Amino acid sequence: MSELFEAVDALIASASPLPPPAERERLRKAHGLTQEQVAAALKVRRPTVVSWENGRTEPRPPQREAYARLLEKLAELYPAQAADDAEDTHEAEAPQTSGVPASTTTPHAPSTPPPAPEGTGAPTVEHPPRQAVAARPSTGSRPSASRRPAARKAAPKDTHDPRFENGPLAVVDVEDGHTLAYCVGGLVLDVPARSVPSLIEWALAEGKLGAPRLSGPGKDADPLLVLTEAACERYGLPVHLSQEERLSGRLPDGHKAVGQLARADWKLTKRGLGPWARVYRPAQGGRRACVQLCVPSWGALDTRHWGDAAHLPAADLARVLGTYATRVMTPRGSTAVTGLELMTALHPPTRASEPDADGKRHREHNPGSLGDEPVDCAPCEAPDGHPLLKDLPRFHQRTPAEMLMEEAYDWARPLTDDEYTKRYLVGIDVNMAFAAGANGTVVGLGAPTHVRRPEFDPKLPGAWLVDLSHIELDERLPSPFTPKGDRPAGPAWYATPTVAYAVELGHPVSPVEAYVRHEKGRYLDGWYNRLRDAYVATMADLGVTGDLSPADFLTAMEGYRQRDPQMAVVLSAVKATVKGGIGKLRERPRGEGWKPGEPWRALSRPTWRPDIRAAVIAKTRVNMHRKMAKHAAFTGAYPVAVLSDCAVYATDGPSPLDFLPYRQGKPLPGGFRLGVSPGMVKHEGTQTVLWAEGVREEHGHELNLARYIKDGNVAAPDTGE
Asked: What are the tens digits of pLDDT across the range 460-515?
């Protein structure tokens, strides 16, 4: 009989009533207990207590009865009514920050999946205690303490999206035989999945990963899973690709993991299972089912832009990628690919129409976007090898009168006798120059129209064949009309910003012909704003803010990358997103057996737009010339070398403050200004005039000193930053 009584007692204990998860946390905190203390008393791990308070798992005997007893005693000491009264008082005193009530949720568009039913995203009691959610600080490879992310708890209720409560991505790692997912904010999830297909299913259901769309008609960001080397081993993937796999950029179709996905009805895009992979099922009923995979050990994170991020511990890698994803967008590939994807995410090609007579909505063009179909470029905008040029002789060298050549500056001149009396050469570099060039630039949104003998319109984006060789400018400055800074030799094709600058300088222009785009807009403004904010926020993390005086700014910039090496990686990735995104607008063939005159893959994208790239670069170069001209007119000083967004001046002192004019702390209007914002300048480097004389004697007097001003090493590669 005693055995029966024991069985009954065990049955009752297994179902001991517990308060809601939020109440469990309130009671513990009300008594001043930590999760570690509760875990030690109940002989469980701290993440287990965290999961009980999150509602992700439920305690099982014998801990359940003891936990219920603890909460019952605490409830007697700290009744819920007192807490409710305090909360009501707090809410009554708190100002309303939005016109939307806190309980109001944002409706989801028909094209996005609704939130999962309550309870479907959490492990059930049948799962072992390791099915827990814990928050851990991202400060090392094996964090021992955990906390819930304060930022997430402080988020306004009306902006929280429960579908993506665990953030945009997770770095999947294996520790002590347990598979863990490190998320944004130090959150750590236990992963029960034992195969690649089940890992995909977990990310879409229990993982609650992803990010809301950046634009109303757009799509939510798919979850991103980053697989460490240990995770690759756990899921039957190679830690490193073979030479053949690296060349093809993917695992062979016969690989076990590829077969597992196929049998589970998951599909891969044409790029297959490679460093960046997209696993999906065709949309059904407007619901997307897609997960992005990133494998750093396969070369997913280019060291030129991500540094050593691929070798960071999982928690630190989650911090780096999570910060980038939060501030820019969830990466979809290289920084260049992400830069291009960001343009589309901010200006989706289509939107839902107004309801028709039957109440149905249809896809229609989204005004202000580039649409969902590629458009042909003008012949002058086409790079060599383009199908539009297939009839040209094979070795024909196109001239400026045949080809739009809007590129960044690469110009240098000999030092004058007066400059040789100076002691130093100081380089200044424009922050995020190409992003600043994109801001406010009106670009074409559709196909070009060919016009003979047009009247120039500075508000009309396009390419213009015009002769600017008659314009005489000070030879101590590079010409604003050519990348090499030399005077044009005759008629040439220019983008609108270049011709508009000639008009601004007071010179008449008479285009011979043009390819103009009447459908136009400031397509890149939102793109600039998001990347600007990401850049400024990351610089603030590194101790460089916008409220610093010029002298304090220069001091703050000394060794700023060493203050937080992980945020320095994010900074590099943000800058690479700008340059790479602009470059992708005119992406060239990348192998694939391409032959001149044949189309290549990038031409099928609506975002293959060499005209937009040309307009941004032209405006960036014009902005640089305008600042140098203002500086010269005010100070009489001229640059000795210019490379892209870096200008070098001869001066008596080693600091930019020794030649940049400031009066009562205010800079020259329209000139260079020290500061952190895009378009402002920072100190690039200082070398001596004797150094310049020596390297030019050794390497030639045409050497561009701006290329090497940063560290004086002539063998150093050009980063353009």
From this structure: 999 999 999 999 999 999 999 999 999 999 999 999 999 999 999 999 999 999 99
Sheet containing strand 646-651, edge to edge, reads: 410-412, 641-643, 646-651, 424-430, 681-688
Q: Which amino acid is at 147?
A: R
Pairwise CA distance, residues 571 & 192, whole Å? 34
Question: Which residues lie below 8 Å from residue 613, measured CB to CB, with a gap of 6+?
Answer: 406, 582, 583, 585, 586
Residue 207, classed as helix, strand or coil, is: coil
End-to-end CA distance of the chain: 82
CA gap 375, 94 in Å, rounded: 53
Number of helices (H) and strands (E), helices first, in the chain? Answer: 22, 23
CA nearest to 173, candidates 201, 211, 205, 143: 143
Cβ-contact 203, 355 below 8 angstroms: no
Q: Nearest Cα to 197, choosing from 167, 237, 159?
A: 237
Q: Under DSSP, is residue 527 helix (H, G, I), strand (E, B) or coil?
A: helix
pLDDT at site 11: 56
- Helix or strand or coil: residue 632? helix
498 within 8 A of 529, measured Cβ to Cβ: no
**What is the CB neighbour count within 10 angstroms for residue 68?**
17
Distance from C-alpha of 496 to C-alpha of 716, rounded to nearest angstrom: 35
Angstrom CA distances, 30 to 26, 27, 76, 85, stand at 6, 5, 12, 15
Exposed/middle/buried for residue 537 (C-beta within 10 Å: 0-12, 13-18, 19+): middle
496 in Cβ contact with 464 (< 8 Å): yes
Residue type, 243: Q
**C-alpha torsion angle, residues 668, 674, 679, 682 (rounded to 10):** 140
Please, which residues bridge with residue 426 across strands? 649, 686
**Which tokens go with 614?**
């040309």
- CA distances 21 to 13, 15, 26, 133, 181, Å, are 18, 16, 9, 13, 22
Which residue, 480, 454, 457, is CA-closest to 468? 480
How far is 704 from 699, CA to CA, in rounded Å?
10
Residues with Cβ within 8 Å of 463's Cβ and at least 6 positions away in sequence, in order, are: 378, 380, 381, 404, 448, 493, 494, 495, 514, 515, 611, 614
Lowest mean pLDDT among 104-118, 443-457, 508-522, 680-694: 104-118
158: Cβ contacts below 8 Å, ≥ 6 apart: 98, 100, 101, 102, 104, 105, 106
Residue 17 CB partners (closer than 8 Å, separation 6+): 68
Closest alpha carbon to 348 in 327, 370, 332:
370
Q: Is 369 exposed, middle or buried (0-12, 13-18, 19+ CB in 10 A)?
A: buried
| Structural tokens at position 358 | 């039957």
- Name every residue whose Cβ is closer than 8 Å to that of residue 260 and which is 6 or more positions away in sequence: 195, 196, 197
| pLDDT on residue 2 | 60
Separation between Cα atoms, residue 410 and residue 498, nearest integer Å: 16
Instruction: Answer positive or negative: Cα dihedral of 186, 190, 194, 196.
Output: negative
Whole-number pLDDT of residue 220: 93
